[in-house]
Amino acid sequence: MNGGTQIETGENPVTEEAARWIARMDQGALTEEDCLAFAGWLNADARHRAEMLEMADMWSDMDQLTELFQPRPVSENKYRSFLKPPAFATAFAFMLIAFIGVSIFSDMAPTSTNLTFATQVGAYENTDLADGSTIELNTATKIETHFDNRRREVALLAGEALFTVAKDVDRPFVVIASNFQVEAVGTRFNVQLHNDQIEVIVTEGTVKISPTDGSAGAVFANAGEITNITSGGITLIGDISSSEQLRLLSWRDGILNYGGETLAEVVADFGRYNDLEIIITDADARNIRVGGYFNKNDVAAFLEALETGFPIEVDRVSDAIIHLSASE
């Protein structure tokens, strides 16, 4: 090595930050907290490591980088060259290579963060994740998150959740529900798991839906599309209007909005939010069409609306059991 190498940081912020770290190391001023911060900076972006490795070829010129970030009179000469004693340069090189080695090893052996979130019947929870994503949990929902340096994975074990995903092209965000997975990078989508059926509503961006075992081809769903998945496979339903999206996601505001579904469908859905057994006692009543807005936790108002607004008779057998039938 010789002292003739010239270095220009220019306007590149990565190069400038790398030079600042090298200057501090060269001065021997790093505390334990500084070392942790430096390792975090290296892991934050592959470009950081690449810049440090490129500078590793210039050990004999480290004083030049130190000089670049010391106060000095303004000069038209942007370049300086200095000669560093070989012994110190070698020691410094080993120290920096050790840091980079630890960083690379950490990236190869990712650290995992596992968390569990759950809501009770009728409850709602909005959860912020460490990566900047958010998850809104509907009634009786349980999820497990498994995040590491390479992948963000959420297992939807029960219920329904709306995912607003922070963009990170290096770490895909994957929701696993039953035997299928929904993969996104930066988007917003809702997943409902009910018995052996899965419903996916995409409100922003695009998601990739595929079996977890890779046994069949993937389906791509875009914003404004709804997809139904059963044990038999994936069925792309197609477009869904903005108003219909709002209706299906109105649970986030504590409201259940029905637009002509059968009484059987409405009762099954309303029952998700309440510890109440509602039984339809005759076949004619099951197909009565129901529409309107209902507070998801107000059982009394729901039953009163059925009685007064539709040809439905309500029999309050007990506090926990309700019978519904078609009124004459």
Could you explain how this protein is built, in words?
This protein has 328 residues and is α+β, with helices and mostly antiparallel strands. The chain has 3 domains: 96 residues; 132 residues, Jelly Rolls, CATH 2.60.120; 73 residues, Phage tail protein beta-alpha-beta fold. The protein is built from 9 helices and 18 strands. The strands form 3 sheets. Strands 1, 2, 3, 4, 5, 6, 7, 8, 9, 10, 11, 12 and 13 form a 13-stranded mixed β-sheet that branches. The protein starts with 12 loop residues before the first helix and ends with a strand. The N terminus is likely disordered.
How many domains?
3
CATH architecture heading of the largest domain: Sandwich
What is the subunit arrangement here?
Answer: single chain
* Uncertain regions spanning at least 5 consecutive residues: 1-9, 62-90, 102-109
Largest sheet: 13 strands, mixed
Write the CATH fold name of the largest domain.
Answer: Jelly Rolls
What is the CATH class of the largest domain? Answer: Mainly Beta
Beta-strand content estimate? 25-35%
Helix count? 9
Identify the overall geometry: elongated
- Find the structural class using helix and strand composition: alpha+beta
- Based on CA atoms alone, the radius of gyration comes out at 30 Å
Mean pLDDT: 80
Distance between the termini: 99 Å
User: What percent of the residues sit in helical stretches (DSSP H or I)?
Assistant: 25-40%
- SS elements, strand count: 18
**Secondary-structure element order, N to C:** HHHHHEEEEEEEEEEEEEHEHEHEHEE
